[in-house]
């Protein structure tokens, strides 16, 4: 869940009657407890997803997200190809701190670079949001528009995306020659298989 305005961001705003706050996600869950999950002796229950996760030795090498991903896993978390997101190794590390320069996305269980996060909407026109990357800051319309042009990128106009280039999941091609996310919630999407994120050009190649 997200607040409707800056006045509603207090962490002390209560949930509706019959619901309680989920300590792992920014949502309210029903007071009725979930059915008890029975895991194998070498597994444990991850409360955030209500699934069984195999126990992993602390010294076992961590599994990183796919090459070209725009995000990292929290500390002591592994990438899971089946779940398509990160997961904690054991209950003690479910808090999952992120590396310096990254912030945790509790909806998608990963760490996103702060340079990719949306900034204050007040710097853009109504129904626009500011996308700040390591190379440029751009005001984009809510939901995106392929006609948006970012002259500050100094890229040649390319109305049609070249065949050898792809955009991250949910992103769209902009006529100024790069990919862009339609909404702040789409920041951190990863590139298709066999493609890597080009931070300078803002597309997957």
TrEMBL record:
It comes from Rhizoctonia solani. It comes from the Eukaryota. This is Uncharacterized protein.
